[in-house]
Amino acid sequence: MVFTQNVQLTLPNQYQIYWQMFIDMFRWDQQNGLQLHRKITNDHLFPDSQLKMRNCLAEDMLKLEMLHAMKMYKNSRGEKGDVLTELFEQT
Hints:
Radius of gyration: 13 Å
Shape: globular
Number of strands: 2
Structural class: mainly alpha
Distance between the termini: 25 Å
Strand order of the largest sheet: 1-2
Number of domains: 1
Strand content: 5-15%
Low-confidence stretches: none
Oligomer: single chain
Mean pLDDT: 77
């Protein structure tokens, strides 16, 4: 499976999470001098069939560092990022 912006997860509270949100945050974080979530790599976002079996990659994506990085990414987007605040506070 190739991950694209069309990959989504709909949560019970009707919020939708798109894989593209993580890709956008990763690209933003790479340009950020502080790099808020240093462990995330292309392997996390675009895993091949072998990498999909590595639980540590999924764990890295679900850590508190990811929540913090997504919040900072949301703040950098201004009003366009408001939907991310509700989404990540509820999940």
